[in-house]
Here is the input.
Amino acid sequence: MLIPGVFVALFLALGGALSYSYRIFPPLGSWSASVSSAVLGAVAGAGLAGLTYVAWRRIGRSVIRGGRGITLLNALIFGLGGALLGAVFCAAVGFLFPPSVGVRVAQGSLLAAGALTGVGVGLALPGAAWRLADESDPDAAESPKQSRGPSKVIDTSVIIDGRIGDLASTGFLEGGILIPEFVLAELQNIADSSDPVRRRKGRRGLEILRGLMENDAIDIRVVRRDYPTVQEVDRKLISLARDEDAVLVTTDYNLNRVAQVEGIPILNVNELANAVKPRFVPGEAIDVDVIDRGAEINQGVGYLDDGTMIVVENGRRHIGRTIKATVKSTLQTEAGRMLFVEPANEAVRWER
Here is the structure.
């Protein structure tokens, strides 16, 4: 309650002083113009302070809850700057023209226009105002690790997955990599888990991060910004990607869908892996290592280097060997793509 009280008291004193100085209000009853201006100006100032404080609190809650804290700070900074610029114009108008009601109205309009214009500019900015100068300076020297393209925010799932290291090393990920501090905390909790499987995954993720940090060719940094009012890590990731104007990199299906609804650019590593898998057409010849028996009689099973499952018709007798095979068809499933092949230049044989 201290801050609202000080805020109202400040506006009360400011409204009373300004109204008294300019004699804005006429005499009221037994009050002279000076007394009525001071009292009514103070009341108007206190009322304006109360409305401003309530409106600002509501706007602040909605903006922060939506993960747009940077936008709120931009609006505050540019709003104050616009108000100061409007005050300069107010002083210039008061210096050039004699005091009158029209001059006072013009001064108030200039002050309000400057503040509102500043707030509008702050809300329209795509990123943090204090970083725009560095990003727009064409003469700024680029660090050897800096690269073009939007930044990439990575989540816990893509770190544990492990393929992010290979993608970053090959240069397919343009722009810097941002690691939120709350993702590091989640990864550490997984590494300290009592479940041995989760513990191994967490430690593997930490090792992958250490390798990324040691690679001088990768622009990577830890972001310490947090969103205390947001509990879910996925919501924090979406908020950070929006504030940083970055792309979210993940393997989480649900996070992928939610981010798409929120309008956040997404790079799904699983979708990328499926997209770059080799394509085969019926009749194409390939080499297959038959390593196990299939689900149906007389079938063998093999795998490509990328994990694609190959079902070899009449291949059970070839288990343990590498054979020439001809592609018959392909099948896309939720788990990935499957190839159906048969040994090349062999007649069909059925085994009991």
Residues 133-147 have pLDDT under 50 and may be disordered. The longest helix spans residues 33-65. DSSP finds twelve helices and eleven strands in the chain.
